[in-house]
Amino acid sequence: MQFYSTNKQSPSVSFKEATIKGQAPDKGLYFPEYIPQLDAGFIKNIEQYSNEEIAYRVIAPYVGEEMTEETLRRIVGETVSFPIPLVPVTEAISSLELFHGPTLAFKDIGARFMSRCLREAIGGGIGQATSSGQTNTAITVLVATSGDTGGAVANGFYGVEGVEVVILYPSGKVSPVQEKQLTTLGGNIRALEVEGTFDDCQAMVKQAFMDQELTAKRFLTSANSINVARWLPQQFYYFFAYKQWKEKEQPPVFSVPSGNFGNICAGILAMQSGLPVNHFIAACNVNDIVSDYLLTAELKPKPAVPTLSNAMDVGNPSNFVRILEIFGNRFPDLKSRLSAYTITDAETEATIKRIREETGYLADPHGAVGCLALERYLQTHQGQKGIFLETAHPVKFPESVERITGQPIPLPEAVRAIMHREKTSTLIGPDYEALKSYLLD
Ligand SMILES: *Cc1c(COP(=O)(O)O)cnc(C)c1O
């Protein structure tokens, strides 16, 4: 499979090269040259297949020629090695719990898959893999995080040979669990604690990628959802959800808490490959330029506004171009498969509280946005049923969730151990030169 750039100004590349590069040189996103079609018998009998087998069949058409079956099966097995249960919340609504991975976030899936693919891709050294004349054999993954991405990336890449990870996070602005996840691994993971905001961190990282003096000395790549190796494996759990869906003759509506739109875009890709889906809902907080787009057919980026569901505070969703690509830029087709809802912080709070009281289910702020958006859709589509993606464990957002429910959230096993570990980070000011000298040191 070859991947072309959505800007169509850069040459097509293989899966491995797309994994190393992240973004295309013309600043477009890599997109598969065709969408594979899964066998109808496989979908019909999906309950008979293990999660490993499902994931392998979904991803193999994208990667197949470039890795041995054995390697790809091993990577897939390591990626989906934790439960992803579909939990009933009400008669019509279920929660797909994506938070049972090592950092309690759905990003664990993409990060684990990508890290292992990157290790395979640089197996022969970067110079050979990219033919760009690079001579160093190590690659540095540079990421800015507002909380969730950093932990998943740190964990996914921990101990991966030939890869060093540098994570920038805003000092004092991530939750205690998130900070421990970023700063206690050691090894090939370095945490830079920036005395500034997330926007400062992101601006510093962007500048590093554009600094030719730096990139000549250090091979940098990013680990965000632009990367095909992080984006594509997110299809897996839509199939796992359908496997657990009881009423196969009436496919589910999927409501996806969305920020950069990588997750929902993977779901739409899964549908185009043959997964039965009734409809998609982009569940957004007040950063809702996609809702506006569906009304006006015009995408107008806005500055991001901080909310309770902060992993979705994105004013210019980078993966939206891929959704347009899937539908061949045909607005009516897109609109018939996708709706969007805007949920305020007050509504998010009220939903967490109401769902907890009425059903006993505890949603995190992101899942709550997904749940309320789904309820709104079902109100006008009687008889349908749906799934919201619960993208993070509520314990990652303790200030808001504990305040809203008035109850402490017990720490899950996966994080209890790290809360006692010592934090190791390097404090730097919010200026690019500080980052540059750190990276060149
Ligand atoms: C990253 C994240 C999202 C948004 O996912 P996108 O793929 O960027 O749309 C939603 N919820 C949580 C908890 C996240 O960490």
CATH class value of one domain:
Alpha Beta
Share of helical residues: 40-55%
Main-sheet strand order equals 4-5-13-10-11-12
**List of distinct ligands in this structure:** pyridoxal-5'-phosphate
Q: Any idea what the CATH architecture of one domain is?
A: 3-Layer(aba) Sandwich
Description:
The chain has 441 residues and is an alpha/beta fold. The chain has a domain at 83-104 and 231-415: Rossmann fold (3-Layer(aba) Sandwich), CATH 3.40.50. The chain has 21 helices and 14 strands. β4 and β5 (93-97) form a beta hairpin. The structure holds pyridoxal-5'-phosphate (PLP). Pyridoxal-5'-phosphate (PLP) binds next to α13. The site of pyridoxal-5'-phosphate has 16 residues, from α13.
Q: Strands, helices and their partners?
A:
Elements (H helix, E strand, L loop, with lengths): L1 E4 L7 E2 H7 L8 E3 L7 H5 L6 H13 L5 H11 L6 E3 L4 E5 L9 H15 L4 H5 L8 E6 L3 H10 L5 E8 L5 H8 L5 E6 L3 H13 L1 H6 L1 E3 L6 H4 L4 H9 L8 E5 L4 H11 L6 E6 L4 H8 L23 H7 L4 H7 E5 L2 H15 L5 H15 L6 E5 L7 H8 L7 H4 L9 E3 L3 H9 L1
Parallel strand pairs: 5-13, 6-7, 6-9, 7-8, 8-14, 10-11, 10-13, 11-12
Antiparallel strand pairs: 1-2, 1-3, 4-5
Helix pairs in contact: 1-5, 3-4, 3-12, 4-5, 5-7, 7-8, 13-15, 17-18, 17-19
Bound molecules: pyridoxal-5'-phosphate.
